[in-house]
Each structure stands twice: as C-alpha cells, then as structure tokens.
Design the sequence.
C-alpha cells in the first residue's frame, strides 16, 4: 500500500480507568486529543472517544459476548499497521493497561518494528472500584496487603494463587472471576472461612454499578438475587465489613454467635 503519511509513527498505551470518563488521567486525555487512531477495548466507555479528534479513526477491537473476532495477534498487527500508515495510535484499555490487560505484549510487538511507545497508567478497577464503594483494599488492623488475582487463567483453571490467597489474611480482589464464584466460595469454605465478608461490584463507576454484599457462605445467593452480571469484581476480606451494607450482616452473625 502506498501511503501519504508524513507523521511519525508512535503508539501510546493508555489506561482509561474503570468506566467513568472523568477517571482517565490528564496525561491520558492529552494523548487522546492528539490521536490519529484510537484502538479501544470492550471495557472502555465509548463516551471516552469524544476526547479524540473528530477525524481520528476509531476502531473497536474488543471481545464482547464471547466474540473473539480480534485475536491478540490481530490487534498487535492492526496497531502497527495503523501507526505506520496514520501516525499516532492510542491504544485505549480499561483500567490500567498492565493489570490483566496484555499491554506488555502489544508494546513488545511494536518494539519489533522500532515504533516508539509510551505508557500512561490508569486507575485499575481492582483498587478504584472497591474504593468508590468506600471499601479500602488495606486498612490498619484489617488488611496488611492486597492481592489481585485472575479468575480466568490461560488454561481456564482457577489460578493456583487463589489457593494461597484463601489461606492469607490479605484482601483478595478477583478479576474475571464472576463465572467461577461457586468454585472460589468452595475454596474459601475448605479453609474454614465461610464467614469472611465478600463484596461483588458490577460495572463500578458507571450508571450500571451494583453491589452485592455478604459472606462467603451467602454470597452466591446474594449475587443471584441481585442478578449481578459481568463485568464485575469480587472482593474477599475483612475490609468489606467497613461497607455500610455489611452492618446488618454483622449484627446477624453477632446474634447467631450468642445462641
Ligand atoms: N486492566 C483492567 C482489568 C482487565 S481484566 C483494570 O486494571 O481494571 C477485566 C476484568 O476487570 C473484568 O472481568 C472485571 O472483573 C474487572 N473490571 C474492569 N472494569 C470493571 C468495573 N468498572 N467494575 C467492576 N469490575 C471491573
């Protein structure tokens, strides 16, 4: 293909944050404003595209409803082709690009073509979404660390890290794990942790935000009652007891304990 492009190719990997358009960084916003092309994922709020120039090419490369029309290889190739032909490609990803975002693979691919790259971090849903609900991932006396674990490994099995996490006192945030909730619950129950507080947050920071709160033993039921859907994350840990909706549950167990 003969191109008319006179712009230098470059790629900026931008974290869009958890959904609310105001939760992108100023640096990410400035990058979007100078984009010639925006490649965006399923978890990126479409409204974010309004920040890009009207004549910028905007390409959706996400996987929705199990539609894997764009493999990672196809995205890598598209990104490089656009950079070489159009100039500045903004690769916009939900949350932070390096938290289960495959961001490094894309940078690696760009490097093979000697295209300059830049990374602009974003607010990861793993910290930001619990935070917006008033659940701190760490809190003195309750949690000295937090783990962010995937519920969906490349092999489709539950991550081995979850077995270790369930034995720790850490706050555990599981991404891509809603469909594995029953397995995760069983794992915690096997460790004798059925009364551990759990929160599930759907579509944090958007109009569809919903929260389900319970303990390990009850959370499956609460999720079904509230019809919680993906994208959602699971927070397991004592810090969840700080959420106002947990108080009645705490009271219930306090009474039950006295019997
Ligand atoms: N890079 C992203 C995570 C990608 S993995 C980040 O840093 O946030 C995708 C998973 O993240 C989803 O399956 C879901 O578990 C979680 N997730 C992303 N955005 C979310 C949101 N707004 N609310 C709840 N969970 C979210």
Sequence:
């Amino acid at each position: 293909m003969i191109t008319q492009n006179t712009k230098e190719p470059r790629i900026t990997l931008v974290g869009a944050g958890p959904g609310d358009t105001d939760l992108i960084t100023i640096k990410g916003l400035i990058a979007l404003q100078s984009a010639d092309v925006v490649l965006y994922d399923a978890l990126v709020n479409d409204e974010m595209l309004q920040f890009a120039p009207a004549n910028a090419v905007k390409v959706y490369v996400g996987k929705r409803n199990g539609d894997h029309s764009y493999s990672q290889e196809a995205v890598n190739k598209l990104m490089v082709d656009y950079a070489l032909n159009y100039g500045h490609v903004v690769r916009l990803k939900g949350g932070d690009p390096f938290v289960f975002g495959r961001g490094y693979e894309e940078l690696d691919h760009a490097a093979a073509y000697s295209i300059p790259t830049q990374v602009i971090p974003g607010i990861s849903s793993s910290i930001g979404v619990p935070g917006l609900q008033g659940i701190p991932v760490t809190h003195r006396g309750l949690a000295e660390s937090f783990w962010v674990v995937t519920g969906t490994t490349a092999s489709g099995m539950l991550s081995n890290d979850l077995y270790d996490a369930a034995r720790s006192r850490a706050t555990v945030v599981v991404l891509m794990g809603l469909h594995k909730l029953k397995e995760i619950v069983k794992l915690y129950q096997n460790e004798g942790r059925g009364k551990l507080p759990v929160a599930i947050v759907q579509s944090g920071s958007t109009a569809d935000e919903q929260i389900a709160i319970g303990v390990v033993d009850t959370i499956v039921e609460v999720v079904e009652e509230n019809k919680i859907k993906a994208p959602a994350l699971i927070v397991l840990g004592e810090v969840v007891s700080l959420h106002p909706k947990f108080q009645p549950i705490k009271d219930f167990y306090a009474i039950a304990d006295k019997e």
In short: The two ends are 78 Å apart (CA to CA).
